[in-house]
Design brief:
The protein is mostly helical. It has helices spanning 4-22, 25-34, 39-60, 68-95, 98-105, 108-119, 126-143, 150-173, 179-201, 209-237, 239-245, 248-260, 267-287, 301-304.
């Protein structure tokens, strides 16, 4: 059996991989849109193919589908959590700048910390509060927020709230199922809803092999890998730590946009990224410090290693 310290190290690595992979979604989405796809079709193919892959893995591992209350909660995480967050995020971008929407979305680590303290009785240390403030400031500098109308602000905050609840619900659900079981149901539920939305509005499938390659990258790199690693990491380090480490995502997106799309890297953006990395360093350093007393009791793993999710900012 792994020691608590080892589990935490593994959890941090998994969440960092998840954030890095989620950070590629906007880039691959840009390529998909350039090939003539729309948002609903992209999300339908994203979750539909991801569900097929995870369903095949579930069958190969001979794991049963979850049942009863657990199954309903997982369906809700996909059909309500992912879909609701995506809808709120997309609607917000119509009334506010992408930078402002992204910043408001990244209020979710703060919401998760508050909700975890209230409902999961998780202790929020001063170091975590400092790391949280640094991450939020770094995000503000990285995404370059500008003005927006009130409906856009409210919808962006709604997206952050929905994702926060998604993470809290997933924290409890992941105690009952494996990562493969949970991912299969979540992807299937989200894919079914986006499928109905796609065919009701008219699908816009890729027009070339380039577009299909973008879809494949979205499915594998920006969906299956990050969702699975997020769920597995969340089980090891808990919802607040997982949400805070996920602020690495906009750093990856900005760097990839500069590298692949030719966007300009400004000094203020680099400073914001440095603040986010500093917050991650403080968080991990605080988590892995040895106990003050060698005779202190064994830590409560039910609190420190709580299992999500779809896990993502789910940036469509």
């Amino acid at each position: 059996m792994k020691q608590p310290g080892s589990r935490k190290v593994t959890g941090v690595i998994l969440i960092s991989i998840s954030a890095a992979c989620f950070g590629t979604l906007a880039i691959f989405g840009h390529y998909a849109y350039a090939d003539g796809m729309d948002t609903f079709t992209t999300l339908f193919l994203r979750f539909g193919f991801a569900a097929l892959l995870m369903g095949a893995l579930l069958a190969w591992r001979r794991e049963p589908l979850p049942r009863g209350k657990t199954l309903l909660q997982l369906i809700g995480m996909g059909a309500l959590g992912y879909v609701g967050q995506s809808f709120a995020y997309l609607t917000a971008t119509k009334y506010a700048s992408p930078g402002l929407v992204a910043l408001l979305l990244y209020l979710y680590p703060t919401f998760v910390a508050i909700l975890s303290a209230i409902f999961l009785k998780e202790h929020i240390s001063r170091l975590k509060i400092l790391a949280l403030l640094l991450a939020l400031t770094g995000t503000a500098l990285t995404v370059d927020p500008r003005g927006g109308e009130l409906p856009g602000v409210l919808m962006a905050i709604s997206a952050a709230t929905i994702y926060s609840v998604y993470i809290l619900v997933g924290t409890n659900v992941m105690r009952q199922v494996t990562v493969v079981q949970s991912s299969t149901v979540i992807f299937t539920a989200a894919g079914a809803v986006f499928g109905m939305l796609t065919f009701s509005s008219g699908p816009h499938f890729p027009a070339s092999s380039f577009g299909w390659a973008a879809v494949a990258a979205i499915v594998l790199i920006a969906t299956v890998i990050p969702v699975v690693t997020f769920l597995a990491g969340l089980e090891r380090i808990g919802p607040t730590n997982a949400a805070m480490l996920s602020t690495l995502e906009p750093v990856v997106t900005v760097l990839m946009a500069a590298l692949l799309l030719g966007e300009t890297l400004r000094l203020v953006t680099l400073i914001g990224g440095l603040l986010i990395l500093t917050s991650v360093f403080l968080l991990t350093r605080g988590e892995f410090q040895p106990p003050a007393s060698a005779h202190s009791p064994e830590p409560d793993l039910a609190l420190q290693s709580t299992p999500v999710p779809p896990q993502e900012s789910e940036n469509p």
